[in-house]
Protein backbone atom coordinates (compact mmCIF):
# COMPACT_ATOMS: atom_id res chain seq x y z
CA UNK A 1 0.00 0.00 0.00
CA UNK A 2 1.17 3.49 -0.78
CA UNK A 3 2.04 5.70 2.11
CA UNK A 4 -1.03 7.65 3.21
CA UNK A 5 -1.72 11.14 1.94
CA UNK A 6 -1.80 13.60 4.81
CA UNK A 7 -3.88 16.76 4.76
CA UNK A 8 -3.06 19.34 7.43
CA UNK A 9 -5.59 22.12 7.91
CA UNK A 10 -3.91 24.95 9.75
CA UNK A 11 -0.18 24.83 9.01
CA UNK A 12 1.21 26.58 12.09
CA UNK A 13 3.52 25.46 14.87
CA UNK A 14 1.68 22.22 15.62
CA UNK A 15 0.37 21.35 12.16
CA UNK A 16 3.73 22.21 10.61
CA UNK A 17 5.70 20.23 13.18
CA UNK A 18 3.48 17.20 12.70
CA UNK A 19 3.93 17.42 8.92
CA UNK A 20 7.71 17.77 9.23
CA UNK A 21 7.99 14.94 11.77
CA UNK A 22 5.72 12.58 9.80
CA UNK A 23 7.66 13.23 6.63
CA UNK A 24 11.07 12.89 8.27
CA UNK A 25 10.09 9.50 9.67
CA UNK A 26 8.59 8.23 6.44
CA UNK A 27 5.09 7.89 7.84
CA UNK A 28 3.23 9.66 5.06
CA UNK A 29 3.26 10.20 1.33
CA UNK A 30 2.07 13.47 -0.11
CA UNK A 31 1.32 16.28 2.36
CA UNK A 32 -1.34 18.82 1.43
CA UNK A 33 -1.62 22.00 3.47
CA UNK A 34 -4.61 24.26 3.90
CA UNK A 35 -4.99 27.59 5.68
CA UNK A 36 -6.93 30.81 5.49
CA UNK A 37 -3.55 32.52 5.43
CA UNK A 38 -1.99 31.94 2.01
CA UNK A 39 1.25 33.54 3.22
CA UNK A 40 1.67 30.72 5.74
CA UNK A 41 0.99 28.18 2.99
CA UNK A 42 3.55 29.70 0.65
CA UNK A 43 6.06 29.71 3.48
CA UNK A 44 5.22 26.08 4.34
CA UNK A 45 5.75 25.14 0.70
CA UNK A 46 9.05 27.01 0.50
CA UNK A 47 10.23 25.31 3.71
CA UNK A 48 9.32 21.89 2.32
CA UNK A 49 6.82 21.30 5.13
CA UNK A 50 4.06 20.55 2.59
CA UNK A 51 4.06 19.37 -1.02
CA UNK A 52 1.20 21.54 -2.22
CA UNK A 53 -1.62 23.55 -0.85
CA UNK A 54 -5.25 24.46 -1.20
CA UNK A 55 -6.84 27.52 0.35
CA UNK A 56 -10.25 25.82 0.59
CA UNK A 57 -10.62 22.91 3.04
CA UNK A 58 -13.21 21.23 0.77
CA UNK A 59 -10.58 20.88 -1.94
CA UNK A 60 -7.72 20.13 0.44
CA UNK A 61 -9.23 16.92 1.81
CA UNK A 62 -9.88 15.36 -1.60
CA UNK A 63 -8.04 12.05 -1.78
CA UNK A 64 -6.57 12.41 1.73
CA UNK A 65 -6.23 9.32 3.90
CA UNK A 66 -5.55 11.23 7.06
CA UNK A 67 -6.81 14.74 7.86
CA UNK A 68 -5.41 16.72 10.79
CA UNK A 69 -7.30 19.78 11.98
CA UNK A 70 -4.76 22.14 13.53
CA UNK A 71 -6.80 25.33 13.67
CA UNK A 72 -7.88 27.29 16.77
CA UNK A 73 -10.44 25.43 18.86
CA UNK A 74 -13.23 27.84 17.91
CA UNK A 75 -12.88 27.05 14.20
CA UNK A 76 -13.10 23.25 14.39
CA UNK A 77 -16.88 22.94 13.90
CA UNK A 78 -17.00 25.14 10.84
CA UNK A 79 -14.06 23.35 9.23
CA UNK A 80 -15.57 19.96 9.96
CA UNK A 81 -18.88 20.99 8.44
CA UNK A 82 -17.12 22.15 5.30
CA UNK A 83 -14.91 19.10 4.80
CA UNK A 84 -17.43 16.43 5.83
CA UNK A 85 -19.11 15.95 2.42
CA UNK A 86 -15.72 15.89 0.68
CA UNK A 87 -13.93 13.32 2.81
CA UNK A 88 -12.97 9.97 1.33
CA UNK A 89 -15.13 7.21 2.92
CA UNK A 90 -12.01 5.66 4.45
CA UNK A 91 -10.43 8.95 5.56
CA UNK A 92 -9.58 9.32 9.24
CA UNK A 93 -9.84 12.78 10.78
CA UNK A 94 -8.18 13.94 13.96
CA UNK A 95 -7.57 17.29 15.57
CA UNK A 96 -4.94 18.81 17.87
CA UNK A 97 -7.16 21.17 19.84
CA UNK A 98 -6.28 21.95 23.47
CA UNK A 99 -9.91 21.48 24.50
CA UNK A 100 -11.64 18.21 23.72
CA UNK A 101 -15.22 18.41 25.00
CA UNK A 102 -16.02 21.55 23.02
CA UNK A 103 -14.42 20.22 19.84
CA UNK A 104 -16.45 17.02 20.05
CA UNK A 105 -19.62 19.07 20.65
CA UNK A 106 -18.86 21.32 17.70
CA UNK A 107 -18.28 18.39 15.38
CA UNK A 108 -21.48 16.70 16.62
CA UNK A 109 -23.47 19.88 15.97
CA UNK A 110 -21.81 20.47 12.60
CA UNK A 111 -22.63 17.08 11.11
CA UNK A 112 -25.38 15.71 13.36
CA UNK A 113 -23.31 13.02 15.10
CA UNK A 114 -19.67 12.38 15.94
CA UNK A 115 -18.36 10.50 12.89
CA UNK A 116 -16.88 7.09 13.64
CA UNK A 117 -13.68 8.01 11.86
CA UNK A 118 -13.10 11.23 13.79
CA UNK A 119 -10.61 10.76 16.63
CA UNK A 120 -10.23 13.77 18.93
CA UNK A 121 -6.64 14.29 20.05
CA UNK A 122 -4.26 16.70 21.73
CA UNK A 123 -0.46 16.61 21.67
CA UNK A 124 0.87 18.05 24.95
CA UNK A 125 3.64 19.91 23.22
CA UNK A 126 4.35 23.33 21.87
CA UNK A 127 6.34 26.45 22.47
CA UNK A 128 5.31 30.05 22.96
CA UNK A 129 5.98 30.63 19.29
CA UNK A 130 3.45 30.29 16.52
CA UNK A 131 3.41 29.97 12.74
CA UNK A 132 4.98 27.47 10.38
CA UNK A 133 8.40 29.12 10.62
CA UNK A 134 8.58 27.96 14.25
CA UNK A 135 7.64 24.35 13.42
CA UNK A 136 10.23 21.59 13.61
CA UNK A 137 10.69 17.84 13.37
CA UNK A 138 11.04 16.53 16.90
CA UNK A 139 8.51 18.70 18.73
CA UNK A 140 6.61 15.60 19.84
CA UNK A 141 9.56 13.38 20.78
CA UNK A 142 9.00 12.00 24.26
CA UNK A 143 5.92 14.15 24.76
CA UNK A 144 2.44 12.90 25.52
CA UNK A 145 -0.43 12.91 23.06
CA UNK A 146 -3.85 12.42 24.61
CA UNK A 147 -6.57 10.82 22.46
CA UNK A 148 -10.14 11.14 23.67
CA UNK A 149 -12.19 8.74 21.54
CA UNK A 150 -15.94 8.73 22.18
CA UNK A 151 -18.27 5.70 22.17
CA UNK A 152 -19.02 6.38 18.49
CA UNK A 153 -15.33 6.19 17.56
CA UNK A 154 -14.12 3.37 15.34
CA UNK A 155 -11.24 1.59 17.14
CA UNK A 156 -9.46 1.10 13.82
CA UNK A 157 -9.49 4.86 13.25
CA UNK A 158 -8.17 5.44 16.77
CA UNK A 159 -5.40 2.93 16.09
CA UNK A 160 -4.40 4.80 12.93
CA UNK A 161 -4.17 8.11 14.75
CA UNK A 162 -2.28 6.44 17.57
CA UNK A 163 0.22 5.06 15.06
CA UNK A 164 0.78 8.53 13.61
CA UNK A 165 1.59 10.02 17.01
CA UNK A 166 3.69 7.07 18.12
CA UNK A 167 5.51 7.33 14.80
CA UNK A 168 6.51 10.94 15.46
CA UNK A 169 7.86 10.00 18.88
CA UNK A 170 4.95 10.74 21.20
CA UNK A 171 3.61 8.57 23.99
CA UNK A 172 -0.10 8.11 23.42
CA UNK A 173 -2.65 7.83 26.21
CA UNK A 174 -6.43 7.67 26.01
CA UNK A 175 -8.59 9.68 28.33
CA UNK A 176 -12.17 10.77 28.80
CA UNK A 177 -12.67 14.17 27.07
CA UNK A 178 -14.03 15.83 30.21
CA UNK A 179 -11.10 14.54 32.25
CA UNK A 180 -8.69 15.85 29.64
CA UNK A 181 -10.27 19.27 29.85
CA UNK A 182 -10.00 19.35 33.65
CA UNK A 183 -6.37 18.21 33.70
CA UNK A 184 -5.36 20.69 31.00
CA UNK A 185 -7.26 23.51 32.68
CA UNK A 186 -5.01 22.98 35.71
CA UNK A 187 -1.63 22.44 34.06
CA UNK A 188 -1.89 24.60 30.96
CA UNK A 189 -4.93 26.86 30.69
CA UNK A 190 -4.74 28.37 34.18
CA UNK A 191 -0.96 29.02 33.97
CA UNK A 192 -1.43 30.75 30.61
CA UNK A 193 -4.11 32.99 32.10
CA UNK A 194 -1.86 33.85 35.05
CA UNK A 195 1.05 34.72 32.78
CA UNK A 196 -1.10 36.78 30.40
CA UNK A 197 -2.85 38.49 33.32
CA UNK A 198 0.37 39.34 35.12
CA UNK A 199 2.18 40.75 32.09
CA UNK A 200 -0.90 42.72 31.10
CA UNK A 201 -1.31 44.16 34.60
CA UNK A 202 2.34 45.20 34.77
CA UNK A 203 2.27 46.60 31.24
CA UNK A 204 -0.64 48.82 32.21
CA UNK A 205 1.21 50.18 35.24
CA UNK A 206 2.52 53.64 34.60
CA UNK A 207 6.12 52.78 35.36
CA UNK A 208 6.11 49.57 33.31
CA UNK A 209 9.27 50.41 31.41
CA UNK A 210 11.27 50.50 34.61
CA UNK A 211 9.47 47.43 35.93
CA UNK A 212 10.36 45.31 32.92
CA UNK A 213 13.89 46.69 32.89
CA UNK A 214 14.63 45.15 36.27
CA UNK A 215 13.02 41.81 35.59
CA UNK A 216 15.37 38.86 35.92
CA UNK A 217 15.59 35.45 34.29
CA UNK A 218 12.93 34.01 36.56
CA UNK A 219 10.43 36.52 35.23
CA UNK A 220 11.36 35.71 31.65
CA UNK A 221 10.71 32.01 32.20
CA UNK A 222 7.56 32.65 34.21
CA UNK A 223 6.05 34.84 31.51
CA UNK A 224 7.27 32.90 28.46
CA UNK A 225 3.79 31.47 27.82
CA UNK A 226 2.38 35.02 27.69
CA UNK A 227 4.01 35.26 24.25
CA UNK A 228 1.64 32.55 22.96
CA UNK A 229 -0.89 33.16 20.18
CA UNK A 230 -3.79 35.31 21.51
CA UNK A 231 -6.40 33.89 19.11
CA UNK A 232 -5.61 30.31 20.05
CA UNK A 233 -5.84 31.18 23.74
CA UNK A 234 -9.01 33.23 23.42
CA UNK A 235 -10.63 30.14 21.90
CA UNK A 236 -9.27 27.79 24.54
CA UNK A 237 -10.54 30.04 27.34
CA UNK A 238 -13.97 30.41 25.81
CA UNK A 239 -14.35 26.71 25.05
CA UNK A 240 -13.02 25.34 28.30
CA UNK A 241 -14.46 27.95 30.62
CA UNK A 242 -16.51 25.35 32.47
CA UNK A 243 -13.27 23.84 33.79
CA UNK A 244 -11.14 27.00 33.90
CA UNK A 245 -13.39 29.51 35.66
CA UNK A 246 -13.84 27.53 38.91
CA UNK A 247 -10.08 26.89 39.06
CA UNK A 248 -9.34 30.55 38.43
CA UNK A 249 -11.60 31.57 41.31
CA UNK A 250 -10.14 28.89 43.54
CA UNK A 251 -6.69 30.23 42.75
CA UNK A 252 -7.76 33.81 43.50
CA UNK A 253 -8.93 32.55 46.90
CA UNK A 254 -5.51 30.92 47.42
CA UNK A 255 -3.90 34.27 46.72
CA UNK A 256 -6.17 35.96 49.24
CA UNK A 257 -5.04 33.34 51.77
CA UNK A 258 -1.40 34.16 51.03
CA UNK A 259 -2.15 37.89 51.35
CA UNK A 260 -3.68 37.30 54.78
CA UNK A 261 -0.74 35.13 55.85
CA UNK A 262 1.56 37.99 54.94
CA UNK A 263 -0.54 40.69 56.61
CA UNK A 264 -0.73 38.71 59.80
CA UNK A 265 2.95 37.80 59.74
CA UNK A 266 2.31 34.06 59.58
CA UNK A 267 5.81 33.08 58.54
CA UNK A 268 5.33 29.43 59.40
CA UNK A 269 2.26 29.14 57.15
CA UNK A 270 4.08 30.84 54.27
CA UNK A 271 7.06 28.57 54.73
CA UNK A 272 4.84 25.50 54.68
CA UNK A 273 3.14 26.58 51.46
CA UNK A 274 6.44 27.33 49.74
CA UNK A 275 8.14 24.15 50.97
CA UNK A 276 5.19 21.99 49.88
CA UNK A 277 5.24 23.61 46.44
CA UNK A 278 9.00 23.23 46.09
CA UNK A 279 8.81 19.56 47.08
CA UNK A 280 6.00 18.91 44.58
CA UNK A 281 7.79 20.65 41.75
CA UNK A 282 11.15 19.06 42.49
CA UNK A 283 9.46 15.65 42.52
CA UNK A 284 7.67 16.38 39.27
CA UNK A 285 10.75 17.61 37.41
CA UNK A 286 12.79 14.70 38.73
CA UNK A 287 10.32 12.35 37.07
CA UNK A 288 10.47 14.29 33.82
CA UNK A 289 14.14 15.05 33.34
CA UNK B 1 47.79 48.14 48.23
CA UNK B 2 46.99 44.49 48.79
CA UNK B 3 43.85 43.15 47.29
CA UNK B 4 40.98 43.51 49.75
CA UNK B 5 39.99 40.69 52.03
CA UNK B 6 36.42 39.65 51.37
CA UNK B 7 34.14 38.18 54.01
CA UNK B 8 30.97 36.52 52.77
CA UNK B 9 28.34 35.76 55.40
CA UNK B 10 25.95 33.21 53.95
CA UNK B 11 27.79 31.15 51.35
CA UNK B 12 24.89 29.99 49.19
CA UNK B 13 23.98 30.56 45.55
CA UNK B 14 24.48 34.34 45.62
CA UNK B 15 27.26 34.62 48.21
CA UNK B 16 29.11 31.72 46.61
CA UNK B 17 28.73 33.09 43.08
CA UNK B 18 29.96 36.51 44.17
CA UNK B 19 33.00 34.92 45.84
CA UNK B 20 33.78 32.79 42.78
CA UNK B 21 33.31 35.70 40.37
CA UNK B 22 35.35 38.15 42.47
CA UNK B 23 38.18 35.64 42.78
CA UNK B 24 38.13 34.66 39.10
CA UNK B 25 38.43 38.31 38.10
CA UNK B 26 41.19 39.11 40.58
CA UNK B 27 39.13 41.61 42.55
CA UNK B 28 39.85 40.29 46.01
CA UNK B 29 42.55 38.68 48.10
CA UNK B 30 41.62 36.22 50.79
CA UNK B 31 37.98 35.13 50.98
CA UNK B 32 36.54 34.19 54.37
CA UNK B 33 33.20 32.42 54.51
CA UNK B 34 30.73 32.30 57.35
CA UNK B 35 27.49 30.37 57.77
CA UNK B 36 25.34 28.75 60.41
CA UNK B 37 25.58 25.62 58.29
CA UNK B 38 29.08 24.21 58.63
CA UNK B 39 28.35 21.64 55.93
CA UNK B 40 27.94 24.47 53.42
CA UNK B 41 31.22 25.99 54.61
CA UNK B 42 33.12 22.73 54.24
CA UNK B 43 31.65 22.32 50.78
CA UNK B 44 32.59 25.90 49.87
CA UNK B 45 36.13 25.26 51.06
CA UNK B 46 36.37 22.00 49.11
CA UNK B 47 35.08 23.74 45.98
CA UNK B 48 37.65 26.52 46.37
CA UNK B 49 34.93 29.15 46.71
CA UNK B 50 36.46 30.39 49.99
CA UNK B 51 39.94 30.20 51.51
CA UNK B 52 38.87 29.55 55.09
CA UNK B 53 35.81 29.86 57.24
CA UNK B 54 34.48 30.88 60.61
CA UNK B 55 31.17 29.75 62.00
CA UNK B 56 30.75 32.93 64.05
CA UNK B 57 30.19 36.19 62.17
CA UNK B 58 32.01 38.15 64.89
CA UNK B 59 35.19 36.24 64.11
CA UNK B 60 34.61 36.10 60.37
CA UNK B 61 34.69 39.88 59.85
CA UNK B 62 38.00 40.39 61.67
CA UNK B 63 40.43 42.04 59.27
CA UNK B 64 37.95 42.09 56.39
CA UNK B 65 37.93 45.05 54.03
CA UNK B 66 34.65 44.17 52.45
CA UNK B 67 31.79 42.27 54.10
CA UNK B 68 28.89 40.88 52.08
CA UNK B 69 25.75 39.78 53.91
CA UNK B 70 24.12 37.06 51.80
CA UNK B 71 21.70 35.61 54.34
CA UNK B 72 17.88 35.58 54.19
CA UNK B 73 16.37 39.03 54.57
CA UNK B 74 14.97 38.23 58.02
CA UNK B 75 18.44 37.52 59.44
CA UNK B 76 20.18 40.73 58.33
CA UNK B 77 19.52 42.78 61.49
CA UNK B 78 20.79 40.14 63.88
CA UNK B 79 23.93 39.55 61.82
CA UNK B 80 24.61 43.25 61.59
CA UNK B 81 24.23 43.67 65.32
CA UNK B 82 26.71 40.87 65.93
CA UNK B 83 29.38 42.00 63.48
CA UNK B 84 29.13 45.75 64.11
CA UNK B 85 31.54 45.93 67.10
CA UNK B 86 34.04 43.70 65.30
CA UNK B 87 34.25 45.49 61.95
CA UNK B 88 37.47 47.22 60.93
CA UNK B 89 36.93 51.02 60.97
CA UNK B 90 37.52 51.12 57.21
CA UNK B 91 35.46 48.04 56.39
CA UNK B 92 32.62 48.45 53.92
CA UNK B 93 29.52 46.30 54.39
CA UNK B 94 26.92 45.50 51.77
CA UNK B 95 24.09 43.02 51.49
CA UNK B 96 22.35 41.18 48.67
CA UNK B 97 18.83 41.05 50.13
CA UNK B 98 15.83 41.09 47.78
CA UNK B 99 14.09 43.66 49.99
CA UNK B 100 15.84 46.92 50.76
CA UNK B 101 13.57 49.01 53.00
CA UNK B 102 13.27 46.30 55.64
CA UNK B 103 17.00 45.53 55.61
CA UNK B 104 17.84 49.20 56.13
CA UNK B 105 15.27 49.39 58.96
CA UNK B 106 16.70 46.27 60.59
CA UNK B 107 20.25 47.61 60.44
CA UNK B 108 19.12 50.97 61.81
CA UNK B 109 17.36 49.27 64.70
CA UNK B 110 20.26 46.90 65.34
CA UNK B 111 22.93 49.55 65.71
CA UNK B 112 20.96 52.78 66.31
CA UNK B 113 21.64 54.39 62.93
CA UNK B 114 22.46 53.31 59.40
CA UNK B 115 26.28 53.17 59.36
CA UNK B 116 27.91 55.37 56.73
CA UNK B 117 29.90 52.43 55.40
CA UNK B 118 26.87 50.16 54.94
CA UNK B 119 25.66 50.14 51.33
CA UNK B 120 22.40 48.25 50.76
CA UNK B 121 22.39 46.33 47.49
CA UNK B 122 20.57 43.71 45.47
CA UNK B 123 21.89 41.81 42.45
CA UNK B 124 18.96 40.99 40.13
CA UNK B 125 20.26 37.54 39.40
CA UNK B 126 19.79 34.02 40.60
CA UNK B 127 18.34 30.69 39.66
CA UNK B 128 15.77 28.49 41.34
CA UNK B 129 18.60 26.54 42.91
CA UNK B 130 20.17 27.25 46.26
CA UNK B 131 23.32 26.35 48.14
CA UNK B 132 26.99 26.82 47.35
CA UNK B 133 27.04 23.80 45.02
CA UNK B 134 24.80 25.76 42.63
CA UNK B 135 27.04 28.87 42.68
CA UNK B 136 29.13 29.81 39.67
CA UNK B 137 31.40 32.48 38.28
CA UNK B 138 29.39 34.46 35.76
CA UNK B 139 26.02 34.61 37.49
CA UNK B 140 26.12 38.41 37.47
CA UNK B 141 27.45 38.95 33.95
CA UNK B 142 25.23 41.43 32.15
CA UNK B 143 22.73 41.44 35.01
CA UNK B 144 21.67 44.48 37.01
CA UNK B 145 22.70 45.18 40.57
CA UNK B 146 20.64 47.82 42.32
CA UNK B 147 22.28 49.82 45.10
CA UNK B 148 20.01 51.78 47.41
CA UNK B 149 22.29 54.09 49.41
CA UNK B 150 20.59 56.24 52.05
CA UNK B 151 21.40 59.85 52.97
CA UNK B 152 23.74 58.56 55.70
CA UNK B 153 25.77 56.50 53.19
CA UNK B 154 29.37 57.46 52.50
CA UNK B 155 29.76 57.97 48.73
CA UNK B 156 33.23 56.40 48.89
CA UNK B 157 31.75 53.21 50.36
CA UNK B 158 29.06 53.18 47.68
CA UNK B 159 31.78 53.54 45.05
CA UNK B 160 33.67 50.55 46.48
CA UNK B 161 30.58 48.36 46.38
CA UNK B 162 29.80 49.60 42.89
CA UNK B 163 33.32 48.63 41.79
CA UNK B 164 32.86 45.11 43.16
CA UNK B 165 29.64 44.56 41.20
CA UNK B 166 30.95 46.19 38.05
CA UNK B 167 34.03 44.01 38.42
CA UNK B 168 31.96 40.82 38.39
CA UNK B 169 30.16 41.94 35.24
CA UNK B 170 27.01 43.57 36.58
CA UNK B 171 25.49 46.87 35.52
CA UNK B 172 24.99 48.97 38.63
CA UNK B 173 22.11 51.36 39.11
CA UNK B 174 21.15 53.37 42.16
CA UNK B 175 17.56 53.61 43.30
CA UNK B 176 15.49 54.73 46.24
CA UNK B 177 14.94 51.73 48.58
CA UNK B 178 11.15 52.06 48.53
CA UNK B 179 11.14 52.24 44.75
CA UNK B 180 13.31 49.13 44.60
CA UNK B 181 10.86 47.27 46.80
CA UNK B 182 7.89 48.26 44.63
CA UNK B 183 9.60 47.31 41.38
CA UNK B 184 10.79 43.97 42.73
CA UNK B 185 7.38 43.21 44.24
CA UNK B 186 5.97 43.42 40.71
CA UNK B 187 8.64 41.60 38.73
CA UNK B 188 9.90 39.05 41.20
CA UNK B 189 7.98 38.71 44.46
CA UNK B 190 4.49 38.50 42.95
CA UNK B 191 5.54 35.96 40.27
CA UNK B 192 7.17 33.78 42.93
CA UNK B 193 3.97 33.83 44.97
CA UNK B 194 1.91 32.90 41.92
CA UNK B 195 4.19 30.01 41.06
CA UNK B 196 4.33 28.73 44.64
CA UNK B 197 0.57 29.17 45.05
CA UNK B 198 -0.26 27.38 41.81
CA UNK B 199 1.99 24.39 42.39
CA UNK B 200 0.77 24.09 45.97
CA UNK B 201 -2.88 24.24 44.91
CA UNK B 202 -2.37 21.59 42.24
CA UNK B 203 -0.32 19.40 44.57
CA UNK B 204 -3.17 19.43 47.07
CA UNK B 205 -5.68 18.33 44.43
CA UNK B 206 -6.51 14.68 44.79
CA UNK B 207 -5.54 13.77 41.27
CA UNK B 208 -2.26 15.70 41.35
CA UNK B 209 -0.15 12.83 40.10
CA UNK B 210 -2.10 12.72 36.88
CA UNK B 211 -2.15 16.49 36.67
CA UNK B 212 1.62 16.79 36.87
CA UNK B 213 2.06 13.86 34.50
CA UNK B 214 0.39 15.75 31.68
CA UNK B 215 2.15 19.04 32.28
CA UNK B 216 4.16 20.30 29.33
CA UNK B 217 7.27 22.40 28.94
CA UNK B 218 5.36 25.63 29.43
CA UNK B 219 4.33 24.49 32.89
CA UNK B 220 7.90 23.56 33.76
CA UNK B 221 9.15 27.03 32.84
CA UNK B 222 6.21 28.75 34.50
CA UNK B 223 6.74 26.93 37.79
CA UNK B 224 10.56 26.92 37.81
CA UNK B 225 10.68 29.65 40.46
CA UNK B 226 8.51 27.50 42.74
CA UNK B 227 11.65 25.41 43.31
CA UNK B 228 13.31 28.39 45.03
CA UNK B 229 14.40 28.34 48.68
CA UNK B 230 11.30 28.53 50.95
CA UNK B 231 13.10 30.27 53.85
CA UNK B 232 14.44 33.00 51.62
CA UNK B 233 11.00 33.57 50.14
CA UNK B 234 9.18 33.47 53.46
CA UNK B 235 11.47 36.30 54.59
CA UNK B 236 11.01 38.30 51.40
CA UNK B 237 7.23 38.01 51.65
CA UNK B 238 7.13 39.03 55.30
CA UNK B 239 9.53 41.93 54.85
CA UNK B 240 8.08 43.37 51.67
CA UNK B 241 4.42 42.73 52.40
CA UNK B 242 3.64 46.46 52.28
CA UNK B 243 4.41 46.39 48.56
CA UNK B 244 3.38 42.81 47.77
CA UNK B 245 -0.04 42.51 49.41
CA UNK B 246 -1.74 45.33 47.46
CA UNK B 247 -0.32 43.95 44.20
CA UNK B 248 -1.49 40.45 45.06
CA UNK B 249 -5.03 41.71 45.68
CA UNK B 250 -4.93 43.78 42.52
CA UNK B 251 -3.90 40.68 40.61
CA UNK B 252 -6.68 38.61 42.18
CA UNK B 253 -9.11 41.27 40.93
CA UNK B 254 -7.60 40.97 37.44
CA UNK B 255 -8.25 37.24 37.57
CA UNK B 256 -11.85 37.85 38.57
CA UNK B 257 -12.13 40.15 35.54
CA UNK B 258 -10.82 37.39 33.30
CA UNK B 259 -13.22 34.89 34.88
CA UNK B 260 -16.14 37.22 34.12
CA UNK B 261 -14.93 37.76 30.56
CA UNK B 262 -14.95 34.00 30.10
CA UNK B 263 -18.33 33.47 31.73
CA UNK B 264 -19.91 36.13 29.60
CA UNK B 265 -18.21 34.94 26.42
CA UNK B 266 -16.36 38.20 25.87
CA UNK B 267 -13.89 36.85 23.32
CA UNK B 268 -12.86 40.29 22.12
CA UNK B 269 -11.91 41.41 25.64
CA UNK B 270 -9.92 38.22 26.23
CA UNK B 271 -8.16 38.63 22.92
CA UNK B 272 -7.24 42.22 23.76
CA UNK B 273 -5.79 41.22 27.12
CA UNK B 274 -3.75 38.39 25.63
CA UNK B 275 -2.55 40.44 22.65
CA UNK B 276 -1.51 43.34 24.90
CA UNK B 277 0.40 40.96 27.17
CA UNK B 278 2.08 39.22 24.24
CA UNK B 279 3.13 42.55 22.74
CA UNK B 280 4.54 43.75 26.07
CA UNK B 281 6.48 40.57 26.67
CA UNK B 282 7.79 40.32 23.12
CA UNK B 283 8.97 43.95 23.39
CA UNK B 284 10.61 43.28 26.74
CA UNK B 285 12.44 40.13 25.64
CA UNK B 286 13.53 41.82 22.42
CA UNK B 287 15.27 44.46 24.52
CA UNK B 288 16.90 41.85 26.70
CA UNK B 289 18.10 39.22 24.27
Which two chains have the most extensive interface, and how many residues on each? A-B, 93 and 93 residues
CATH level 4 superfamily of the largest domain in chain A = NAD(P)-binding Rossmann-like Domain
Reported by name, the CATH topology of the largest domain in chain A is Rossmann fold
Number of helices of chain A: 12
- Per the principal axes of the C-alpha atoms, what is the gross shape of chain A? globular
Give the integer mean of the pLDDT values of chain A: 95
Overall tally of domains of chain A: 2
How much of the polypeptide of chain A forms β-strand, as a percent range? Answer: 5-15%
Structural class of chain A: alpha/beta
Write the element-wise H/E pattern of chain A from the N-terminal end onward.
EHEHEHEHEHEEEHEHHHHHH
Gyration radius of chain A, in Å: 21 Å
**Tally of extended strands of chain A?**
9
State the helical fraction of chain A.
Answer: 40-55%
Amino acid sequence: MDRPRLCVIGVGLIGGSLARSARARGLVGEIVGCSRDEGQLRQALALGVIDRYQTQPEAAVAGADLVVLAVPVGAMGEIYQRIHPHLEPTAVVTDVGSVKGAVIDQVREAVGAVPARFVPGHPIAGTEKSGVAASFDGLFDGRCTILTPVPESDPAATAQVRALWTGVGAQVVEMDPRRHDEVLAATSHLPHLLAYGLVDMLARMEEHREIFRYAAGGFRDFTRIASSDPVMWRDICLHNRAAIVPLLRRFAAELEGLARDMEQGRGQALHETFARAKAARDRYTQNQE
